[in-house]
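Dear colleagues,

As part of the handover before I leave the project, I'm documenting each prediction I ran so the next person doesn't have to rerun anything. This entry is a single chain, and its sequence is reproduced below.
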Amino acid sequence: MTSKERVLKTFQHKEPDMVPRWCGSSPEFWQKAKKFTGLSSDEDLNRRFGDDFRRVYSVFKGPEEELHEGATWRSPFGVERTGLGYGQPTSHPLAKAASLKDIETYTWPSSHWIDVSTIQTQTDLHKDEYAILGGEWSPFWHDAIDLIGHEDLYYLMYDNPAAAEALFEHITDYYYEGTKKSFETTGKDIDIFFIGNDLGGQTGPLIGVDGFRQFVLPSLKRLIDLGHTHDKQVMMHCCGGFRQLIPDLIDAGLDGLHALQPDCAGMEPEGLKRDFGKDIVLNGAVDSHNILITGPSPEFVYAETAKILHTMKPGGGYICSASHDYILEETPVENVLAMFDAVKEFGLYS
């Protein structure tokens, strides 16, 4: 069975030959892992880990503007950031927005800035063997926080819900139109529309169920429906504890949840499998901190992964991966290898 066949059967909630494996990584860990294994190419390392997925990307071709001093990156929405990786916002351009007019008159990015011309070439490398992830990442929740400020976004939802709804709609328009362009042209061989919005914290959701339904779910539903219109599975990355939101995500048609964190409130693997495993693909659950980073030995990681597989694999609908997709540099490579090697023994279906 090819990786593509294995993954697509998992999304049908049927048992393939073995549990699929997913490896997301920080660049720093990836370079360390290549040095540790002696492998020189990214593809060779992907194969060593047994990753069943490959991802394709568009290219941002928006206006080039000089960054302000101290900034290292600018989002398509004009938010400058500084620090490690994408860093943290240096300011919130819509911090003083209090009315619908403030939202409507903001200079919103054009989806024409999303260049999808290379996606078919990227996809052709792997489309017959691996499950292909694509579409725009679409982190509209994070973009809204960056534009307004986290606390002020909650105030806007309460004080002027029409303005908050318009904010999410404008942000989502950019990702929706860019992804639509991809799916209608160069992205026809993409299998899974992969999006990301972190809606949970360590102790529960960052927004209540009512607020989620009013402000966030409409954008998610637009993106999910777009994927389904083009015959894609739709999977969302979401960190933290957000168990209370999962029924609505299922009702909206979401096909998969990625990077489940078992150490967050309500995210115990047994409960997720029992209550939601027949309705949505569950991806993650190997604790990045308490198993992969601080686990005392590869043997410990191997045994703990076996326990998770015993819980999660029956009936299909499970993908084995770390609970944080961005495997960090401080993670021992031998522990990650042990996690994925355990799938080869304990992830097999009879």
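Residues 103 and 167 are 6 Å apart (CA to CA). The chain is about 45% helix and 15% strand.

All the best with the project,
I.
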